[in-house]
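Pasting as-is:
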Amino acid sequence: MHTVALLALDRVIPFDLSTPIEVFSRTRLPDGRPGYQVRVCAERPEIDAGLFTVRVPWGLEALKTADTIIVPGTADPGAPLPPAVRDALRAAAANGTRIASICSGTFPLAATGLLDGLRATTHWSAADLLASGHPDIEVDPDVLYVDNGQILTSAGAAAGLDLCLHMIRRDYGSAVAADAARLSVMPLEREGGQAQFIVHPHAPAPQGSVLAPLLAWLQDNLGSDLTLAAIAAHAGMSTRTLIRRFREQTGTTPLQWLHRARIRQAQHLLETTPHSVERIGAQVGFGSPTAFRDRFKRTTGVSPHTYRRSFS
């Protein structure tokens, strides 16, 4: 039987704490035996969970005997990590213990230094904060979870459930994981590389920028065949000047901005209209249905049909 220790920190997110408790405690092996023993531990006997207080049965010593340690999300990702918690996590990692984080739990895990040099993820809305605070981590905001072997991280709370099922599959195989997924009413087949379903916002131009009218024109003409030369001509700039100003003011290139705008508009149409995928692809400016499907899947991680089933 595997032992899973949930490390609760102050301002722990209740859902991120309860999800692994439910998933692992309900996992059963083919002969009916439980697959996991779950322990909730913390530095202190009581932990602030926002609307209520959590009484914790085990202290940090429980981390020493755990096969897996999970760090749930915290509502205060910028809070300093207590030295005792930091040292306990580092000692567990040195002993080969598997350590995973859910959502903003990536932040306290990052504070230990255990993610330095590794790829990691967190909730997409906090990805920039993680990247700026920990430049040695390769932050990927577009996946559900990242498995580095011993160290794993997941995106939002729902992705934490995906990560738990992934670890069960690693430990006991697909049949046991599939049974755990059915009990959780979750599909087992969502993979870590599937992009988080994010409607990426456009990088805004600064107030008064000369690009503001151009961005509005681009948005109004997504369905047109817009080349870099055509965009530069409309802006009254050389292509070199256009690219330079775009990078300075939006952080991206004109064509990258255009592709993102087209995918965002396609997401909106898939959610709100019954139009065919082919028609939507043409509406937002893709030359062929194949090109649209390929770009959409590379951007969101799923096909237009799958996206529509999830959000329409």
